[in-house]
Write a structure and sequence with these properties.
There is one protein chain. The protein is about 30% helix and about 20% strand. It is built from eleven helices and 16 strands. The chain has a six-stranded antiparallel sheet, with no helix packed on it. Helix 4 packs parallel to helix 5. It starts with a helix and ends with a helix.
């Protein structure tokens, strides 16, 4: 025991934690100083004492924050001066950006890039969507505007209008205009420039994936899809089976009460099943190595109401292997190897599911006229569009689906008898029962939603059943139907030609 209490404290800390005390700390000596209001130099000590009352403590914290703010502002000024000195002394033609040190604005050499600013107010964004002249601001965008108004010292009542320009290499540039008022009189207008820069990129470690994973392609088939399904089977045999792609195709035939015959001569899907058997037998003979079948079908009897994507997956997933990637498709899709490889790379067990936005063909009579449609759909904006309201394509692992499925209250459908009918109400289903991708929002798995040029769908007429659809689904269906015919210029040209 020493008479020096600091030494006693050091020995106590070392005895309890086996950690020795060091001096200095981060090149700053352990120096204490008594606090004196408005006269204490905060750079000369690491510890301050003497604040015995609550008022004195608050004063100490205020003075310390003011000191830190001055230090920070001086550092910013020095950094700004150093950057400008570097630019002035450089032999290259470097332009001083605003704010100093920020990324320069992207200058495009492509005439197709939209280098425009979008106008907005406190409630709507103008010109963001060509189908809607005024788009209502979401909560995050409205919060950004209020924060920028606060930084610009513009009151909400004084704000007139603003412009926003998004730059993928820089961030978002804002121009805000407002009128200053005094005693109910308007003074000169005020303009404020603001930049919300991009955050520093962060490298997220992801598991290793390869293009050798097996895919189970699930395709629901309705009565109207028979011919399209036969065309898809021939394409699947040519582009997947012959190329030894690790893809398994399951056709889910959906039977209505009006056509309940299954697996007999009166079967409505008899021709499709026969073609599937022919293809399966043909390639089993060629394949000398004993492998599992490339094709399989499942007959699903309904009660008159088309099962939702969630109900369909409940009945199908337990029939599939745990290690395979489950891919939900449609009879309108083209069989393309690059799309399946993209599915393999973007579907990660326990990490991510893939929700591609398909490229859908416009009405053939409008885009082709009297010409014959091509065998395969080309990726061209005059031939089709990305249907952002089409949520019928998704890839995931079985374990991720079962985990996400267990987190919602709607019971799992285990048999056909549990499916709903037109008489029973469908309000037991989740609000967005067709948006299977939204199911994974309840789990920790990330949902990757992005336009996929390799997922190409041939044209299919869209019907909106007001008896079975909710009000939100009807509205979305009408928008999809309106967009499915063609571009506005193509429709206008067709109308003008018909009037001549």
């Amino acid at each position: 025991v020493s008479y020096d209490q600091s030494q006693n404290l050091e020995k106590c800390v070392f005895y309890a934690t086996k950690v020795k005390c060091h001096d200095p700390f981060d090149e700053s000596p352990y120096k204490a100083q008594k606090y004196k209001s408005s006269s204490t130099p905060f750079d000369s000590a690491l510890l301050f004492y003497g604040a015995t009352s609550a008022k004195t403590k608050n004063t100490l914290l205020h003075d310390l924050n003011v000191h830190n703010e001055k230090v920070f502002n001086n550092d910013v000024k020095n950094l700004d001066a150093n950057i400008r000195a570097f630019i002035n002394s450089s032999k290259y033609d470097i332009v001083v950006n605003w704010p100093t040190g920020s990324n320069p604005k992207f200058k495009s050499t492509d005439r197709f890039d939209r280098d425009v600013s979008l106008s907005f107010n406190q409630t709507h964004l103008l010109g963001d969507d060509e189908y809607d002249p005024a788009t209502k601001l979401d909560d995050n965008h409205a919060k950004d505007i209020q924060e920028i108004l606060k930084q610009c010292n513009i009151q909400s009542d004084d704000f007139n209008s603003g412009w926003k320009k998004v730059d993928a290499t820089r961030g978002a540039d804002y121009i805000l205009e407002g009128n200053q008022k005094s005693n109910e009189k308007r003074l000169a207008s005020k303009e404020c420039l603001a930049v919300r820069e991009l955050a520093n990129p962060e490298i997220v470690p992801m598991p290793f994936v390869t293009e050798s994973f097996r895919i189970s392609l699930i395709v629901p088939v309705m009565e109207k899809d028979s011919q399209k399904t036969m065309n898809m089977l021939r394409s699947f045999a040519k582009n997947s089976i012959e190329n030894s792609e690790r893809i398994f195709l399951m056709l889910v035939f959906i039977y209505t009460p009006e056509r309940p015959d299954k697996n007999n001569n009166n079967d409505f899907f008899k021709d499709v099943k026969q073609l599937a058997l022919q293809i399966s037998k043909k390639y089993k003979k060629k394949d000398k190595v004993k492998t599992s079948s490339h094709l399989l079908w499942y007959s699903l009897q309904t009660k008159g109401l088309t099962p939702s994507s969630i109900e369909l997956m409940d009945l199908v997933t337990h029939k599939l292997d745990d290690k395979t990637i489950i891919l939900l498709g449609s009879p309108d899709m083209e069989i393309r190897s690059d799309y399946f490889n993209r599915v393999r790379m973007n579907t990660i067990l326990g990490k991510q599911v893939f929700c591609p936005i398909p490229f859908v063909e416009y009405h053939p009579a409008i885009i082709y006229g009297k010409k014959r449609p091509t065998a395969s759909l080309s990726f061209n904006t005059s031939l089709g569009h990305f249907d952002t309201l089409n949520h019928h394509h998704l890839s995931f692992y079985k374990a991720d689906y079962l985990l996400a499925r267990s987190l919602i209250e709607f019971p799992i459908v285990k048999a056909e008898s549990e499916l709903g009918d037109k008489v029973a109400s469908a309000n037991k289903l989740p609000a967005e029962k067709e948006k299977l991708c939204s199911l994974f929002m309840h789990s920790k798995v990330h949902s990757l939603t992005a336009p996929e040029p390799s997922l190409r769908l041939r044209y299919e007429e869209i019907f909106c059943d007001q008896e079975t659809m909710s009000e939100l689904e009807i509205k979305s269906c009408f928008v999809r139907r309106m967009r499915s015919f063609g571009r506005r210029s193509q429709l206008a040209e067709m109308v003008m030609n018909s009037e001549q």
